[in-house]
Amino acid sequence: MRKYRLLLTDARLRAVLGALKTCGPGLGDLAEDPGSAPAFFAPLRARLRRAAGNGAPASSRALAAAEEFTERLEKLFSGLALHGTAPDAAVMEALLCLQRACGEARDLLSTGSRAAAFARLRGFSAGGRKCLALARTAAAASPGGFPQNLKFSSIYSGLDAAFDAYERCAEALFKI
After folding, report:
1. Chain-centre distance of CA 23, in angstroms?
2. What is the pLDDT of residues 31-80, one digit of tens each?
């Protein structure tokens, strides 16, 4: 009941959860067609901007983190499209973990399931970060293909930063 009351009275929370709900399933489509990122993220960012002045002050941290999350994801996919690079196995695995973590966000406002949802999304986030860290270490240690390794190292760093923003958003939602 608490979750529905919050969503009815706080436009910021509606925008944040709407962005996370949309990003989760959209990650797979964006991995296949990274060039569609600007069109995908523009309405999400616009909705988050419109909600900036409407809502409880406690939800402002979640809104700021959600804005950063969508910006980082758009930058990641736009970079993939710009370089004509397909996501490698590590990026795909990390995106799957992020997709699963986004699916848990809806329960962060619910009194009965919020602790379990927060623990699950932290687990998904940790799994994605571990995959990225291993891939980044392997890319740095590889003697050949320096430009490709450098490119993927920046992709891994960008996706890791998106995980940071997502975790800040989830923590802010959890604390509301």
Report:
1. 7
2. 999 999 999 999 999 999 998 876 667 788 999 999 999 999 999 999 89
Long-range contacts, 149-155 (Cβ 8 Å, 24+)? 151/83, 151/85, 152/85, 152/88, 152/91, 154/79, 155/76, 155/79, 155/80, 155/85, 155/87, 155/91
At 81, phi and psi to the nearest 5?
-65, -40
pLDDT score of 141 more than 90: no
- The values of phi and psi at residue 84, to 5°, are 65, 35
Q: Is 142 helix (H, G, I), strand (E, B) or coil?
A: coil
Cα gap 87→119, rounded to integer Å: 27
Q: What are the start-end ranges of the E strands in 96-157?
A: none
Place of tokens 């983190």: 65
